[in-house]
Amino acid sequence: MRRNSAILPIAVFTPSRWPAPDCGPRLEWRAEGETLDGEAALQAAIARLAAGKIVAIKGIGGFHLACDAGNPAAVATLRARKHRPAKPLAVMLPTATGLPAAAAALMGSPAAPIVLIAKAQVSGLCDEIAPGLAEVGVMLPSNPLQHLLLQGLARPIVMTSGNLSGRPPTLSNAQALNELADIADGFLLHNRDIVQRMDDSLVRSSGEMLRRARGYVPDALPLPPGLGDIPPLLALGADMKNTFCLARGSEAVLSQHFGDLGEEGVEQQWRSALQLMQSIYAFVPQRVVVDAHPGYRSTQWAASLPLPLETVLHHHAHAAACLAEHRWPLDGGDVIALTLDGIGMGENGALWGGECLRVNYRECEHLGGLPAVALPGGTWRHASRGEICWPTVWRLSLTGRIIRRPPPCASATGRCWRRPSSAGLTHRALHPADGCLMPLPAPWIARRRV
């Protein structure tokens, strides 16, 4: 039982994740007209994974797509079927033997997150797991079914999200059998419904949180000194990489990671989670806070609520969140903040992304930032790195002076980082931020050290 006086006036009981022979959950294996139950289902999944096949595995917060992490052909097949040519894949290990102590402790904690560590510190992985990158995300089994699978296999396996590329995670057996049929060679299912989507959490071995979800949500976070006695407030976040927040008294509850609300299925899961959390916590908001961008789904949905609506500049919210993370008191005074990200709404409708601000929790003053450049294709498109270079060409040519309706401009740091990656590395953006993740070539590193 977990009780929290500020956020949670009622007791919340956490059901056991450990199964019993009489209670279940009941395992079922489905593949090519074959149906097996119980132990036979488990052994069929183990055999298929060992043979280099791809298996969809139902967990407690969604499905995973799994394959042998040491089999290059199996990993290449998974990437081809999922249309995920280069984005790094998470790996589940049987044990943390041989890993750094800090990483092993995090992996073995009750939260059991994915931990980002140096790829050279993990043995038994093929190069296709995280091509061109120096780090890889690894985790240990976090539920009984995963423990049984890894005990039977005794080798690392890929455990990536069970969904079509760009779509929300699959949650039901019927949905998995339909949507993942062209990816998985078999399905290891159980009869326990997934009520709420919950992605795997991701942290660095230093403890820095990169994605807060399974194992950490919905634990309340203390607000900084001076921010106590807050009336019930609902903050809905931006559209990309969305989370929402319930704040009351001296604490706040952040939701799990949802992704892009522009995807219809993601928005449905987001609304369902919001409704459930408000019900569990007996939370009735008195105000709603949203991003200042009028085109965001979260902002538009909030406008339909019969509650006072407050807008916050995207990068002021970033800076304030950083202050709160470091327990900066309400009366701590102003700070200088560098807010470097993708794109967010700034003052007078400008698109910001590389700004220097003077901020406190209540106020934000724009001191300067990166020069704004044109965005070919608009703000919502993940352009190729070659296209990202065109804004510079645009400014140096007559084209921008001739065309009467140029594309929107933004001072986005993320877009700036993409341009160097196009200079001799690769010109196609295979996934968001892949250019930023690429390690520098050895001659560049050597020159930098001189």
TrEMBL record:
Domain of life: Bacteria
EC primary class: transferase
Molecular function GO terms recorded: carboxyl- or carbamoyltransferase activity; double-stranded RNA binding; zinc ion binding
Family designation: Belongs to the carbamoyltransferase HypF family.
One of the protein's GO biological processes: protein maturation
Organism name: Klebsiella pneumoniae
InterPro entries attached to this UniProt entry: Carbamoyltrans_HypF-like, DHBP_synth_RibB-like_a/b_dom, HypF_C, HypF_C_2, Sua5-like_dom
YrdC-like domain span: 39-215
Cleavable signal peptide: none
Keyword 4Fe-4S: no
E.C. number(s) listed in UniProt: 2.1.3.-
Keywords assigned: Transferase
Record-given protein name: Hydrogenase metallocenter assembly protein HypF
